[in-house]
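Customer escalation, tier 2.

The customer says the design service returned an amino acid string that "doesn't look like it belongs to this structure." They asked us to rerun it and document both sides in this ticket. The original structure tokens are below, unchanged.
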């Protein structure tokens, strides 16, 4: 049974939803719907991961699209009240709506379609026109394909809610074509840090924390908390939101001595993840009390457990003043300046912006540089990918073990976390320039079996005064000696009927007429069908049946070779005519052979794939010539 998402955290949210769903009439949004105070709507206990608590669309009023603006605000409010969408998701949709409004308010450069002034005027053509407009906008501003796709998805979610609320009539599947903006492979902007970069970053964080502890460095409380979070993120590679929302009861004893369990929660999937970390070290008394301890050896623990305990202990007196939404958080601090809804002196919690300021501070203080000589670029995504690299090395390349260490499935870990940083590129270049060359030379010197090669095909030219007899037609093309050829029975009277071997025989001949090329392309279609069946029946791996594998190898060689030499040897117009004739219908001989093959496979409940030494063109079923006196097309 599919689980339905529910982000409802307030009982007051159910009442407005019931009123909306009970009404059979289309709702009438007003100007008040263009501004949504999410705190007043959802309550103080609601989650606001992006720190945005007001969705204000009133700047778009008075531009001729008021109905669109008010309806969009009404739909955002309905999604919030329903509990089916997280506040972070609705906030993302709100951020994508200006692109829709800009399209609606702009003037169309083409007479059709006219921009819809009301939601009820929307048609499938408008949706496709908006997608084209969005793609042109993305191309002009240099967006990545994922950015264009995410923008469309956000707008689509609001339009889908308009269908549900009755603002737009019709079947949504007619408006939203599948694969309108298909997923395309692109390199991630975030790559893992190299080992050298990770070492420099770890030393910088350690130096800052040690200096703060001994009073040599004065930092704001938010910067100190950011350093502590950065150390845990570097060691554990946790996702940003679970790490920022880590609770004060996240620590638990580990199963092994000297370890702890760090619990984090993913709000969307309702999953609790436990990561193993190092616990705080115990303090041992010195054997020589009068001995002066070295400043660097003073007891200051930088394990994950100790750093988290420092963060909890240093903010214990702030819990009583913290808002209800932050009372259980670890990364509390007192705001040094007013920012948004947070006033100076208020108790707040680390978010992405304050964490970025802390990261920029440590990079500037320690002059951290990347491998390329530029300032080191650090974020939690790069730290998580670096953790993936370390886990992959620990697991000796086993993606299943690595995914388990990361807390993901192998598919998610394999798709999202591998990356190519500068150090890996240098290693790859070194391998291609050195090791790969050695391997290829060693492989070239290794003994090999007989290689299957087709004959060098040259068009057979028949002149008016030519003494030589024209080649005999065959179902493949033609043969200069069908009785005494390489693969003929060589009994002096029987013609060769092993048509699979034609392109591997020195007696193969082709003049290049449209009719001949038609027979050749028909054989190519037959060979492709037989190869597909052999691949399905035998599997991708090579089997011990030498005859069948030889037949499969010949099909694999001859199919692309036909395309190659026909394009090189004959006029394009003639090849195109023959191709068109093949598409309209195969040569009767090969059409008959394909029919016989399908019937034989259908009759055989457990087909025995065997080939004898006298097989004709194929193994399943075996093809023989229809005329012993001489094959004719």
């Amino acid at each position: 049974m599919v689980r339905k998402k529910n982000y409802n955290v307030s009982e007051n949210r159910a009442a407005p939803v019931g009123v909306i769903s009970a009404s059979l009439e289309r709702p009438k949004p007003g100007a008040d719907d263009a501004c949504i105070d999410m705190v007043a709507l959802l309550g103080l206990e609601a989650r606001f991961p992006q720190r945005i608590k007001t969705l204000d669309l009133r700047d778009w009023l008075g531009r001729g699209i008021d109905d669109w603006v008010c309806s969009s605000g009404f739909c955002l409010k309905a999604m919030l009240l329903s509990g089916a969408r997280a506040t972070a998701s609705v906030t993302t949709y709100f951020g994508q709506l200006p692109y829709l409004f800009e399209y609606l308010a702009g003037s169309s450069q083409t007479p059709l379609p006219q921009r819809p002034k009301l939601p009820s005027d929307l048609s499938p053509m408008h949706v496709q026109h908006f997608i084209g407009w969005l793609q042109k906008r993305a191309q002009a501003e240099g967006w990545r394909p994922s950015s264009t796709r995410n923008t469309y998805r956000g707008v689509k979610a609001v339009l889908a809610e308009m269908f549900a609320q009755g603002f737009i009539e019709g079947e949504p599947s007619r408006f939203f074509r599948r694969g309108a903006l298909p997923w395309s492979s692109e390199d991630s902007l975030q790559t893992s840090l190299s080992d050298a970069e990770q070492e420099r970053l770890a030393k910088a964080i350690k130096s800052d924390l040690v200096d703060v502890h001994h009073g040599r460095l004065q930092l704001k409380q938010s910067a100190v908390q950011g350093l502590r979070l950065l150390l845990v993120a570097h060691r554990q590679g946790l996702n940003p939101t679970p790490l920022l929302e880590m609770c004060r009861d996240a620590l638990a004893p580990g199963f092994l001595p000297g370890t702890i369990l760090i619990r984090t929660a993913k709000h969307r999937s309702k999953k609790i993840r436990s990561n193993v970390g190092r616990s705080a070290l115990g303090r041992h008394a010195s054997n020589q009390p009068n001995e002066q301890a070295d400043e660097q050896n003073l007891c200051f623990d930088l394990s994950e457990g100790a750093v988290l305990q420092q963060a909890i202990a240093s903010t214990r007196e702030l819990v009583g003043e913290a808002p209800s939404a932050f009372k259980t958080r670890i990364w509390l601090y007192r705001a040094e300046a007013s920012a948004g809804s947070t006033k100076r002196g208020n108790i707040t919690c680390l978010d992405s912006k304050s964490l970025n300021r802390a990261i920029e501070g440590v990079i500037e203080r320690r002059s951290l540089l990347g491998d390329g000589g530029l300032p080191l670029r650090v974020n939690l995504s790069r730290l998580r990918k670096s953790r993936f690299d370390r886990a992959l090395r620990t697991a000796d390349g086993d993606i299943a073990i690595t995914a388990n260490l990361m807390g993901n499935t192998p598919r998610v870990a394999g798709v999202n976390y591998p990356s190519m940083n500068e150090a890996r590129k240098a290693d790859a270049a070194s391998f291609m320039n050195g090791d790969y060359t050695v391997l290829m030379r060693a492989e070239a010197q290794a003994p090999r079996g007989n290689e299957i090669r087709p004959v060098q095909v040259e068009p057979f030219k028949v002149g008016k005064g030519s003494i030589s007899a024209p080649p005999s037609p065959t179902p493949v093309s033609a043969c200069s000696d069908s009785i005494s050829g390489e693969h003929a029975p060589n009994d002096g009277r029987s013609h060769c009927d092993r048509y699979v071997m034609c392109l591997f025989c020195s007696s193969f001949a082709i003049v290049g007429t449209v009719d001949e090329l038609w027979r050749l392309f028909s054989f190519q279609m037959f060979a492709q069908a037989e190869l597909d069946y052999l691949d399905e029946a035998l599997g991708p791996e090579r089997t011990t049946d030498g005859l069948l594998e030889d037949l499969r190898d010949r099909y694999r060689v001859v199919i692309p070779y036909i395309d190659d030499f026909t394009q090189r040897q004959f006029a394009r117009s003639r090849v195109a005519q023959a191709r068109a004739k093949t598409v309209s219908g195969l040569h009767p001989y090969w059409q008959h052979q394909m029919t016989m093959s399908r019937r034989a496979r259908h009759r055989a409940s457990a087909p025995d794939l065997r080939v004898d030494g006298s097989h004709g063109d194929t193994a399943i079923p075996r093809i023989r010539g229809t005329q012993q006196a001489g094959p004719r097309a």
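Tier 2 assessment: The sequence is consistent with the input. Strands lie at 35-37, 54-56, 251-253, 259-266, 271-278, 332-334, 347-349, 472-473, 478-479, 508-509. The CA atoms of residues 39 and 53 lie 6 Å apart. Sent an explanation to the customer and offered a walkthrough call.
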